[in-house]
Amino acid sequence: MTKNPHIVLVAGGTAGHLFPALATAQTLQAQDYSVALICDHRTHSHLQSQNITITAHTLPAASPRSRNPVTIALATFTLINSTLKAARLFIARRPRAVITFGGYTSIPPAIAAITLRIPTIIHEQNHTLGLANKLLAPVATTIATSFPDTRGLPKYARRKTTTTGTPVRANIAAVAGTPYKTPQDSGTVNVLVIGGSQGAETFNHLIPETIALLPENIRSRLRITQQVRGDTASVRRQYQDLNINADLAGFFTNINELLADTHLVIARAGASTVAELVATARPAILIPYPHAANNHQTHNARNFANLGGGQMLAQDKASPRTLADTLAEWLANPDKLIAASNALRNQSPKNPEARLANCVRDIIARKSVGRRQTKERLAL
Length: 380
What we know:
Blueprint: E1 6-10, H1 15-30, E2 34-39, H2 41-49, E3 56-58, H3 69-93, E4 97-100, H4 107-115, E5 120-124, H5 131-136, E6 142-145, E7 161-163, H6 170-175, E8 189-194, H7 203-212, H8 216-219, E9 222-227, H9 232-241, E10 245-249, H10 255-261, E11 264-267, H11 271-280, E12 284-286, H12 296-306, E13 310-312, H13 320-331, H14 334-347, H15 352-379
Parallel strand pairs: 1-2, 1-4, 2-3, 4-5, 5-6, 6-7, 8-9, 8-11, 9-10, 11-12, 12-13
Helix pairs in contact: 1-15, 3-4, 7-9, 7-13
């Protein structure tokens, strides 16, 4: 293999797209690939706030899903403009492959790559194929999925589909090697509350109100670590009134350490969150965001529950009373927590980052063989 073949990754929107891309970038760089990232302004801001170093190119993104003709026209212009910019970048950098991780940001670079005959892999993190990936599936070189039974995958596309799992960052993967420890009879109970990269505003009041309804023998031992969206001071006051030890932040950079120490997670069901819970074998109560596109969080949460890793609770049924009863049932049964952790450990896909990197290697090799055979035919 030629030294330092250049690979472009495309990730836009939230951390659910970004983190699998960064995990893949780490693996490719370790295998001596040169890697760059195409993202939109939201992802680029997230990179800067987390001090993540990678060559990044920003492209504007827009959703064409609207009934307003002006909005549709502007979105169409943006997509065409971004496609041309991506094409110019590819002509200058000559990547050997492009990997996209969903979202509307992925459409222009994928179209540019396919037009320029650059092998293109699309990766789907969710249990349901997203709209962007559904549009790109017919023309992508390879489709990589996180689940063997991904919903919405066209039958004609299955012959070029491979199940890799969702790549997770190296510090998260390292937690997989740490044993799960149940709370001791009189020890601290660590509950981690996360809502994805943007938090979950619903949790700001739901979780404190839930904690207030727990039996005293559980509540007095709790340590809550919660990702808060918006008014952190208000949430802090609620916990202070309950005399609860709580660590609150808008985003946690040490999520690997928190997962290693947690006994139970309460979370949304974004693809990246679920992948990290499976990889680290941490039990969870998942409350999927009900307005997610194609209801994909509900499908993610249901699949997680079916693996035996925890319980799904629909948001319209997640009253403080219901959630308190559910939480108490889990925290009062160490054997149930251990069984959930073991179920996840047995189901966790092995080395999804390496599997996706192998897809890159394979399509580069096939492309090289095709070129060589073409030259041989022309020489006859």
